[in-house]
Design a protein that fits this description.
The chain has about 300 residues and is an alpha/beta fold. Helices cover about 35% and strands about 20% of the residues.
């Protein structure tokens, strides 16, 4: 069936969600896409939510509105739009985050970065009742909101220079529940967004800044859909990493930690830069695939 065709027609009231799932699976398979994607799309369109298992077994009849939602989502996916944007949300650690083209798609590599930030948070929390955290360039809020959700004593500032990205951050903050009371969202570039009184008082600074070099080849699903301003840093790709490393010591408390996501080939030069900036215990830690992914450095 071509991309302009409907997966099924519910007008006679005889099409079930299970049948829609089977047909959606077939349509996506024709484009080389996984069956799991069909399950997620049908789960979202049926109102059961991402990851639901019921649609495949459901004998419930599909409404015209439900069928329209499935068709729209399938057409978007077949046009190349990333699944996460098609669904409008994506799981990240303990959270279900709203995502759209205003922000980067949360990735497993960044989940590992959050884990390293939490390790540093715990180290500091052993000696301080309150640890202040800044998530610079927060985008969807994935890093900062995860820390707030997973550590009840954390006070978190989430910053971004993009007003569009911060609209997504605030939408995700609204769904966070009680931890949202410990999160402050601020607009501005890197540390410039933070209140001056935080200088020298942050326990953890964490960021997933743009670290792609201008002109670097990216998969079309990334280059054509995700916001370029959140991907590309400049001719070298390390411009923002260097800027954050250089400025961070003035904002961190003694013993505080800087955690940055980077690409594997940037690991050694950025670790050297951190050491030159006065950081100690400088390490580059791996992502889930074992590749160098997170710079962890501490202020003396």
């Amino acid at each position: 069936m071509g991309t302009g065709e409907s997966s099924a027609q519910p007008d006679d009231g005889t099409v079930t969600w299970g049948e829609v799932l089977a047909e959606t699976t077939r349509r996506l398979a024709g484009a080389g896409l996984a069956a799991q994607e069909a399950r997620w799309i049908v789960a979202e369109a049926s109102g059961l939510g991402v990851g639901a298992d019921r649609p495949g077994d459901s004998e419930e009849f599909v409404t015209v509105g439900g069928m329209s939602r499935v068709d729209t989502m399938v057409e978007r996916r077949l046009a190349g739009e990333p699944l996460q944007y098609v669904l409008g949300s994506w799981s990240f650690r303990t959270l279900d985050l709203m995502v759209d083209r205003r922000v980067l798609i949360p990735r497993p590599e960044t989940e590992a970065v959050v884990g390293y930030a939490l390790d540093e948070f715990d180290r500091l929390a052993d000696r301080s009742p309150e640890v202040r955290v800044a998530d610079l360039g927060t985008g969807s809020g994935a890093i900062g909101l995860s820390i707030a959700a997973e550590r009840v004593s954390a006070k978190v500032w989430c910053s971004d220079v993009s007003t569009d990205a911060l609209a997504v951050t605030r939408a995700n903050l609204a769904g966070l529940g009680r931890p949202a009371m410990r999160v402050t969202v601020v607009e501005g570039s890197w540390f410039d967004a933070l209140p001056p009184e935080l200088a020298g008082g942050l326990g953890v600074v964490v960021s997933n800044p743009p670290y792609v070099a201008t002109g670097e080849a990216l998969p079309s699903e990334v280059a054509d859909w995700e916001p370029g301003s959140a991907l590309t840093a400049g001719p070298l790709g390390t411009e923002y990493l260097e800027q954050i490393i250089s400025a961070a010591p003035a904002w961190l408390m003694g013993g505080g930690a800087l955690i940055l996501e980077l690409s594997p080939e940037q690991a050694v030069p950025m670790a050297d830069h951190a050491s030159s900036a006065g950081f100690v215990d400088v390490e580059v830690r791996p992502d889930l695939t074992g590749r160098p992914r997170a710079l962890v450095a501490r202020r003396p």
